[in-house]
From TrEMBL:
It comes from the Eukaryota. PANTHER family: REVERSE TRANSCRIPTASE DOMAIN-CONTAINING PROTEIN (PTHR33332). This is RNA-directed DNA polymerase. It comes from Holothuria leucospilota.
Length: 262
């Protein structure tokens, strides 16, 4: 806790220098830890500027629920409930609206929730994301009046829409492309490394990104691990796109290929 108080003191100084005031009535605190590590039962609040800020297990920040274990369970459950309600809206309107309007409705009521901040929570366990895929399929079948016996690939291929798992891969790919071309903020500059920066062996993969050796599965779900893995798996033709627009177009086509196959 001494480290926490020292860092909070720096935060307080920054607020003073910047002539800003923190609204403590709308402030919460979280102690991040692994699931198998128990919190100190004697710690219920954190003192900041003479005010006790309560400890929370989960808090909503910029539309994303962040929990103390970074499992993203609360956020996934929240958007699942929202999407489930919105599917009911699409079901009631599908007989009265043309296909183009239904597509816009899907993008507004379904896709924005599957895409928003997916770079953070999209790497969670497949078992957690799978319910979102079921809801996404249900929404797409309502849009194109598909029956349940059709192949699960059909609605995605027919409408050229990425499943929720590939929405995450798509966003990871765009992030990695931006890092390669050095268009991200400086804070991300040293997040990844090329293999030739870690060793001098003249191997075929020396221009690939180095994949960190994480022991925990939860660490392997982070962008530091999934980013290099995805980038190294892309064909050189896609990696060498000379504009972000052409990269995004090529990447989506690459991810959609498996759904177009008979």
């Amino acid at each position: 806790m001494e480290i926490v108080h020292n860092e909070l003191h720096k935060v307080r100084e920054w607020f003073c220098v910047s002539k800003l005031l923190l609204n403590l009535s709308k402030t919460a605190s979280i102690l991040f830890r692994t699931p198998n590590r128990q919190p100190d039962p004697s710690i219920h609040t954190i003192n900041f500027c003479g005010t006790d800020v309560p400890l929370c297990h989960s808090v909503k920040f910029l539309g994303v629920f962040i929990d103390s274990h970074l499992t993203w369970n609360d956020h996934i459950q929240s958007i699942s409930k929202t999407i489930s309600k919105n599917i009911g809206i699409i079901a009631r309107l599908r007989h009265f609206l043309p296909r183009k309007t239904l597509v816009n409705l899907y993008n507004t009521l379904i896709n924005q929730y599957l895409s928003y901040s997916a770079l953070l929570w999209g790497g969670s366990y497949c078992s957690k994301i799978y319910p979102l895929l079921i809801l996404q399929k249900r929404a797409l079948r309502l849009k194109i009046n598909y029956q349940l016996q059709h192949s699960p690939r059909d609605p995605f291929a027919k409408l050229n829409i990425l499943p929720v798992f590939d929405i995450y891969r798509y966003q990871v790919g765009i992030f990695m492309y931006s890092w390669i071309w050095n268009t991200l903020p400086n804070i991300f500059r040293f997040t990844f490394q090329f293999r030739h920066e870690t060793h001098t062996h003249l191997t075929r993969a020396r221009n690939s990104l180095s994949i960190p050796a994480f022991r925990l599965t939860s660490s392997q779900q982070t962008l530091r691990f999934t980013g290099p893995c995805l980038w190294n798996s892309l064909p050189p033709k896609i990696q060498s796109c000379n504009s972000k627009y052409s990269f995004k177009k090529s990447l989506k086509s690459y991810l959609m290929d498996k759904y177009r196959r008979p």
